[in-house]
Structure formats: C-alpha cells, structure tokens
Q: What sequence folds into this?
C-alpha cells in the first residue's frame, strides 16, 4: 500500500498517518518529493483491507500495490492448474468441449442432442435444470426432474454432465446428479453460494459476471478456493456494455490476460457472449485462437422451438461446422481435440 | 409483438410465420410496406416470451410492444403505492430517512449512532449484519449476533430496523429481528432469494443491480410482487460505468423515470452511489430535488475506524448538515420530513 | 510517479530502472518491502509522460501521483473562476440560464423563443447553426445564415448568444456573431479545434464527451487554457452507459466532484442528459441542488415540429414551470437568479 | 417506422397521428390489438428522420424498421467491396497487414522499422505525424515533417503509407504524401472532417469511436460514401467499458457482425484494442480467426524508448512471431498472406 498525501499536507498530518500505522504495527517508508509526500506501508497489509485511511486528514488517496487475491494468483502457484474430471482434463493439452441445450426440456430432446454431441467429440453435456430468468413469466426450468434426465442420459451416453446451480437448495440437489457445477453470471457474486460450492469440493465452471472486472472475477474464485476447492474453471461469457447489437460484448482479451495472472483454466461461451447463433462459430474460432482451454456452446435439435435462448443456439449442422473449424485451429495452438 | 421481415423475405417465409403463429392460436395483422413486410401479432403474447421467432427464415427482428412486467407497472395500478411500515409511510407525503453504519460492529457503535439519528429525525436504522464483500478476506459482518444488536437498539430507541439479506439462510434469521429487508445490488437477480422474500410478505428495499437497466430492475421487483408481496421499495444506488472517479455513477434520472412507469416508491442511496463522503450531501440534495421518496445514508460515529465503507460514511456533524439542507428542499417538492 | 516492481524483480532489474531514471536526471527513492520493491521518482516528472517505463524488465506497473493537468486544477488556482461575459457572470453568486432551440430553424421561431426566454429571466440564447448529426440525412443546420439570425435576435432582445462550432471553419464564422462558443460532446477531444478556440480568447462552453471521464474532460479544458484562454465553462450533459431508457446517463456527481478539483465553473444540460422532455425539469432541479453554476436547456415554441431534438425540448409552458421551481431551490444553495 | 400508441390512447389521438402523417403524404396501416394500437407508416420515411412524433399526444414510442444508413449496407450492395490501393487489395482473398510505429519519431527509427516490416510481408506502413493526445503536454507528432519522412521511406522501400488526419488542415497536407488516410477513434464523429475525406476520394481507414455502437460507426462511414468516396476500410480498435485491466475492450464480434450487414472491409487493431504488448499477438490471432480482412499493428524497434504508446508496441522479434502465427491461421479462413 502506498499513501499519497495531499500537496498541502502538513507535517502534523503526515506524522498522524505514521502514528496510526505504527499503532497497527506497520512500518512506514516516507518519501518526500518536490510536490508531494508519499508513504509506503511495510508489514502485513491485510490489516488495512477495510481501513478507510483515505479519509484521514491530509491523505489524498491510497494506491494498493498487491492484488487482493492470493490462491488464484500465479505468485501462489506459477504452473497452470489442470483439472481432471473423471478422465477429462481441463487446462492441459486438450481443448475441452462442453455443449448442449440451454434448458433441459424433455428426455427426447436431451438424448437426441447427447447422442449427436458424443459423435462430434464433445465430452461434457450442458443442460439447465434451474434457469435464472429475467422475467418471472419465462420458463424456469424443470428443476430436479431435469437433473434426473441429465443423469439418465449420462448413463446411456457416457457424457459427463455440467448444470447450473442458483441457490444452496439447487446445489444440494445438483451434487447428487452432476459432474461439474456451473455458476451463472448473475450469481458470480452470490458469496454464500460460492462458499457452499467451495465446501462441496465439486469441479465448477464460474462464469464472469455481467459487469465484473477481472479482479472481481478472480476474487469470486478466491472465495471457492479459500474453502478448499481448487477445481475452478473460469468462463468468459461477455460483459455488459453500451453496445446493443450483440447480447453481450465478448471480452476475449480476458483469455490471454487471465493466463498471465492466474493458474486457473479458462473457457469461453460464445453463445451468451454474442446472443446470435450466426456469430457463435466465428467467435468460437476466435476464442480458441486467443488461447482458451475450451468452449461451452448451446446446441439444440431445433432451435426454433427451444424454450430458452433459441436465438443463440446452434442446430446440429452448424455445430458440426464449428467442430470442423475448431479442429483445424487447435493444432496451431498446440492443442488436441478428442475424437 | 411486431415481427419485422427481412427486405428479401419470400411469400413462403411470410406465410410460414403466419402459420406458426396460428398454430399457437395467435392472430396476425400483415402490413406490406414498399420495402419490408411487418407482421403484428394479436392475442396473448405471453406465449411468445420464450419463442425464438427471430431465427425463423425470413425474419429480421422482433419488436416487443408490451413491457415484460405487469404488477409493478402503472397500467396495472395507476396510483402510487404507499407502504406503511408500523406507522412510517414510504411513498406518501413524507420523505423517509434511513441511516446508520454500513456494518454493525459493536453495541456501543450502534447505540451511539442510533441515539444521534433518532434526534435528527431518522425513522429507520440501517446496519449490515451479513455483508457481501468482494474479497473473502474483508470483514464479513457479525451475522445473527449483529441482528440481535439491531433488535436491542430498536427496543431502546424505537427506531425501525432495515438490514440486508444475502441468502435464504440469512433471510430466515432476519425475519425474526428486522422490520424491513434489504436486497443488495449483487443479489438483485438472485431470483431464488427474491421469491422467498415474496413469500415472506415483509417490506423490502430492492437495490438496483450494478449493471441492471430499469426494465430488469422492475422485472426483479415483479418476482417479489408475483409471490404476493407488494411492499417493495426500489432503491437507486448507482450503476457501473467507465467512470472511475466515483465508485458508481448515481443515475438520478431513474427517479423521475420510475415515477412515470411504476407505482412503487423509490429512494436513493448517495453513499454507495458516489463512494466518497464529501459527495454524499450534494447528491442527497439532488436526489430529493429529483423527486425521491427518501434516502438511505451511511453514518458512522468515527468513519476513520469503520470496518466497512468508511470512505463513504458521514460523521455526525456532516449528517446533521445533510438533514438541515434536506429540510429546506423537501417543502419545495411538497414533502414533509419528520422532526 | 511511483514504480511498482514485480514480486520477483532482480537486483539487476531494479538498478536498471534506477540507471534509466538517472540518465533522465531524475532522482529515485527506493522502498524495499517484504514482497515488493517500490521506486519513487523525484524531479520533473513531465519528462516521463510518454516514456513506456511499464515495459522495462522487472517493472509491474506505474502509479501516477500527480494529475496530468495543471492550469485547470485547484492547486494552480484555489479560488473559483468567475467568467464575466458582457456583464453576465458565470461561476459567481448567480445561476446562469442558457436556453433556446436545439437548431436555429427560422427567424420567426427564433424571435418568438427569444422574446419569451427574455421575459423568463434567461440571459443567454442557445441555438445551433452547425449541427453535428449522427446521420448525413438529418437536418444539418442553417450554417452562417443561422448565425446571422442569432445576431439579429441579439440586437432585438439584448440576449447574449451561445452557438456550437464543429470545425475551424465554423469557428471562424462564429467568432463574428456569437458571445459564447460551444464545443459539443463529439468534439470534446477534437484537439485541433480546442487549440484554435484557445487562441480565440472567446468564452466557451465545453461539453463533456459521451465516454470521457473527468480527467480527460479536464485535460481537454487544459488544451484551451494552455493557449491562454481561461474562459472555459464546463458542461455536464450525460455519458454513455448500458442504460437505454434515457438517451444518456446524466452524471450529476461530476458537479460536486469538479468543484473539488477545479476552479472552472460547471453547468448542466438536462435536455441531452435525459433525451426526454418530461425528465428535464426534475433533473434541472437536481442539477441546481447538486451545486451547478447554471443550466442550458432546449426550448422550442412547438417541439412537435422541431427539426432536431424535439423529443427533449420543453415548450414554453413547461419551461416556465422549470424556472419557477429553480427560483425556489436556488436560494437554498445561496444562489440568485436574475429576474 | 412503426408507431406504438399508449394503452390508453384515444380515438382522437390516433386520428391525430394519422392526419399528421397524411399531411406529410405518408400512408398509414393501423393495427388495433387487444391492448394497444400500432400504426405502420408507408412511404418515404426519410421525411420522418427528424420529426419528433414521439411527443404527439397518445404516442408511446417509435420503432424504426429500416436502418438509418443506405450506401454502406448490404441491401444497397450485396457483394463485398474490395478496395485496390495501388495493387494491394483490401477485402479480397488476401489479408492486408499494416504495421509501424505509433508516431514517426526520426528517419532512423522509421527506415529501420520499414525495412524490417517489408521483409516480414507487410504491405502498408503506419506512422502518426499528427497525434491526437489526451494531454497537451504529450508529444504531439512531427506534423508535415513526419509526413515527408514517411514519403521518403516509401520511395526507399516501396511500402504504401497510412497516416492519421485530425483536421482539414492536416488532411490537406496528408493528401500530398500518403496512400491511405486514417481517422482515429476520437474523430469518428468529426463530420466536417469525414465530409472533406469523402470529397478527397482517397482510401481511408475509419476507426470505430471509443463509445460508438455499430450503427453510429456505419453512419459515420455513410458520411464518406455519401460524398462519393467508396474506399472505406472499417477498423475495430476496442470500445470503452468498465473494465480497466485492458486499455479498451476489443469487440471482435463486430467483425462477423459487420460482415453480415455491410459490404465494407473490416480490419482490427489489437494494439489499441488491448493497450498491452503481450496481449497483441493472441488477439491478432483471434481477429484473423473471427474473419477480419487484415490487421494494423504498432511496431517499434525499441518500444522502451518510444515517444508514444510504447506499452502496446511490439518489438521486431515479437512481431515476427505474430506474422508466423497469422500465416498458419490465415489458410483455415481461406485467406492468403503475401510473402
């Protein structure tokens, strides 16, 4: 922490800050410039995390030097984390492909989709049973019935299952049926839920919040790791900006940026990231080219009749094209794609 | 709903859409312009809320005509809702003042603040017992112990109590101690929590989400009303924008806008809205001048030692000035302020 | 400037930075913490303004300590600037009122509006002759003809004239006719234009750019002051955010914030700030309550037939109400309003 | 244009709108739903572009059906535009590579860079002579002297030259020396400049404004085409969002989106798009994978000593890697890269 004093700060104010810090058993390093005095703080600065030094007389502003997170950072763990989910690796040499319908609608829809995806080389089937919808009048998902359908399809196809949890209640149920949990954008800062997931020790896809910056996203992951669950897969899914031509603005630069500062794997959701099915494949290519560890894509046998997010779902033909193109780009990034 | 066809849509595509709608027992009204065909949909359009018409062949885009919400709108209830919380009215002729520390820290802090606020004419004491903090290493609140302190202070001072809930668990506890619930910005779309609050029938302050537009905010309120709880107080607390000079951008235009489209009362939180204590009083004045039904303000006996949000908390002297200035502006808006 | 070194920076890298700075004749102040080394730079740091120190080996990031601007800041000039435009003061005890049509359309429209505004106590007539329009097919203004109409109306009514310039060409013409120049949001960073205005020594209203933060806005003003023109009136007119219910998000907190860091006067434009005529009066009240030095408002005798911005223009009756309400709020802020 | 009437609009109000439109010689198509009346407008709606119908009694809102632009759209010209700049094609089968220093600093710097870039297969040398800088105290470019250096280097290397213009003055000078003009983000809505460029008939790179949506960007291009200059190359360079970890948020989804609605070529600037040199290559790969027609990249022989944008400039080694990787991805998109 560096404390920048105001241009007109008095000697008394400077020593006031000094005394305040020494009461907290923190050392100081005072640097008197031509125009400003700057105070460096030495010692365990976590003590200061909630201390409003900024309003002390003579203080202009504080400049944090250290990241607020620890376990998710590269300083803590320099090598990349590879998460092994029953044999499927995330964050290693292979690209992981997760795909499936936005919402679980029926056994027929699900099994038809799963069989197709399996053939395409997808490893993890996505399907929402609990849907957080903007309007209370939208389809809210099948709940536990949806989870049971997912589990049945896993038995038949061998695909692993990822599904969203929205509360401790749905978490408790999901833990009985799924292989990977998913936290949606709207719940990225539902800290109570994050802590429960941390305790569950189940692998989890943590989507970036609509208006969360990179640091807040990593802090949310820290909540999970801090409870002892290190199996966190970050997922870029677009942020909210002024642009309305797409549903969200897919911030692909977060991929190489996260790779620099965190050891956690990161995948991309081009379906929510764009909201338009015809932009999904180009942005899936771009995500892989940017260095993503995998993709999560919405696929529906008949998007026109989907009960949720039909506009951004690929049909089988389009998804097949997507896989073809990804297969060509992956080797350039030294990535494999399972057959 | 209006369906805009593409410039080059064929006759067949147009009749395809027509057929699709008539299968849903919806009537159509086709308007053939010089460049585009437009299809108006007649009947109960709620059927269409999740139907991805946008991807039907020949369709360019859909234009929703009706608001997605119902119970919160002025069409449903033209006159303003006045919520009576044990004699304190919100949304009527009086301005409601809620104030108190960001977090409940100790009995001493709380009682000292409450006695002062009572003298100033404040009716509702705020104090966080469950704090949703960006970092797991920040002070997370005293939990149920904090709620008990709040209840004890209510007994001593007669002030009503508002406190934040962050999960069904904390909700269950809060229902035993508080008079008004609060949903924070990060939980505005925690739909599971909203539904539980709806069932509780307890008055609630619903803060606007960091990146929520007006329509999403009203939809969140709709979740609560839809469960039979009509006692929702909206609270503007700033949105996330590119500007970093303030913690958030306080969008005061939401106040007169909400007054036009909804019957629910709306208050303003200038503390979170700015993040800087020295901007709180000017923005409090502005909020009242814009037509807000009240304010919620962070006050701390010694902000410099606050465990949370000290930078944006007023000390007693500053809050007293705020009250003086509000007292002068209120009558111009034909509002009273209790003594 | 403070240079934060990486956690793993070597001794060699640290002395590399030191050497680099001493070559620029800058002193250093090295503070070695438990986890990081921090280097404070001493001397005239303007040398560093374009130096990419951030990419030197071992450097994590730079933390600027000083504001990049000088002449617009309170450090340079602690007392508020009062601009006297032919007897009309901006930034002093009086609120300045500027009003008029978005665009000059005809002599009849202009004279009718001006006579009304004069009666209402407005001092400066606004009217666009050069209109920067998003589409080339929109009405682009009457050009010099519009300026001549404005000048004629000034003769008849005694109102001063403010009008927008969009290029050095339009500036040259405007200088012959108007009393105050206006730079629109889209040209806030048209630095060439700003420099020409600086040389002109004419008072100027500098609107905040659509996506400009406070610092960039002040830097734009610095371009004008740096050429010797100190008569700059800042104008908050809303910023671009994700919210689409209003045309822009009027960031009123910029008013008290600017008052803290700059000596320049600041007025508010609630017409562009909201884009809806029925939000203009509440936000005008709020602007004055927040401490603005004045307002600039769009008024049209018949908004329904306005050639530009009719949706956000007040008719005479509504403007008269606005003035009545402002007259009541002004004294609370110790401001006068001319009769 | 579709006019949505308010729920409680009277017969009189509906016929008022009808009459208003028929006075403008526009036909109407009235659709009376169960809850709302909708009025479709038939005829040349350009008349309505500036008509504030929205404030007519009984009108709720207007829904534009047609895009506001014409010449830049696919309806006007379905096939992609290929621009031929003295033998270098933009928008065809080849990817175009533009690269060079942010600012022209000296002949030595420029020639050294140009010789290297030529070897790498770059076709167009970028270099700023007129630099629009946020602060008046930053290096402002060499002006005409810089243009002369660029022209000299063209003679020696055969590279074509692209350079930014910031005013009609700099445009006039640039026309004597460069092969392609560039309009920077800050001037995207400098309509006066756009019109002059339109008249010049010189190829131009039009960068997206910091806070411009796709529609405004295309409207800006329309200003140029409308003056008879069809040689416009769009350039995505990132938009301003709440995220501060990168300088801008590179919105790569604009690439496939523009390809759907416009015939103009689009290139990507990953240097400004990220502001960090180590993100440039991953995002360059992503841009090509998303379908961009080319790249414009900042390269400097010694970024550490660059006078402008050193943080985001690649050195020769990094740029060489970038070219290697692009060469591998290009064929997957069926694109060639010149040797």
A:
């Amino acid at each position: 922490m560096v404390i920048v004093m105001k241009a007109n700060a008095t000697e008394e104010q400077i020593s006031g800050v000094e005394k305040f810090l020494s009461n907290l058993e923190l050392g100081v390093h005072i640097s008197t410039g031509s125009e400003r005095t700057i105070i460096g703080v030495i010692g365990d600065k976590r003590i200061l995390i909630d201390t409003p030094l900024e309003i002390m007389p003579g203080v202009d502003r504080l400049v944090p030097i250290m990241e607020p997170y620890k376990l998710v950072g590269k300083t803590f763990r320099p090598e990349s984390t590879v998460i092994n989910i029953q044999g499927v690796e995330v964050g290693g040499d292979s690209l992981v492909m997760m795909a499936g319908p936005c919402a679980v609608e029926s056994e027929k829809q699900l099994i038809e989709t799963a069989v197709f995806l399996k053939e395409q080389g997808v490893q993890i089937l996505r399907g929402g049973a609990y849907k957080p919808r903007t309007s209370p009048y939208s389809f809210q998902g099948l709940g536990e019935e949806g989870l049971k359908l997912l589990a049945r399809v896993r038995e038949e196809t061998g695909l692993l299952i990822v599904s969203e949890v929205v509360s401790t209640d749905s978490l408790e149920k999901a833990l009985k049926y799924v292989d990977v949990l998913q936290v949606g954008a709207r719940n990225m800062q539902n800290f109570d839920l994050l802590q429960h997931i941390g305790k569950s020790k189940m692998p989890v896809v943590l989507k970036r919040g609509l208006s969360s910056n990179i640091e807040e996203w990593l802090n949310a992951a820290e909540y999970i790791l801090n409870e002892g669950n290190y199996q966190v897969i970050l997922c870029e899914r677009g942020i909210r900006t002024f642009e309305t031509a797409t549903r969200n603005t897919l911030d692909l630069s977060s991929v190489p940026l996260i790779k620099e500062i965190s050891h956690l794997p990161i995948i991309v959701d081009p379906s929510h990231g764009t909201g338009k099915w015809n932009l999904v494949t180009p942005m899936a290519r771009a995500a892989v080219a940017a260095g993503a560890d995998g993709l999560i894509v919405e696929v529906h046998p008949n998007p026109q009749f989907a009960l949720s997010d039909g506009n951004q779902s690929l049909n089988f033909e389009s998804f097949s094209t997507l896989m073809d193109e990804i297969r060509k780009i992956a080797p350039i990034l030294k990535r494999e794609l399972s057959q």
Summary: The mean pLDDT of chain C is 92. The longest helix of chain C spans residues 107-120.
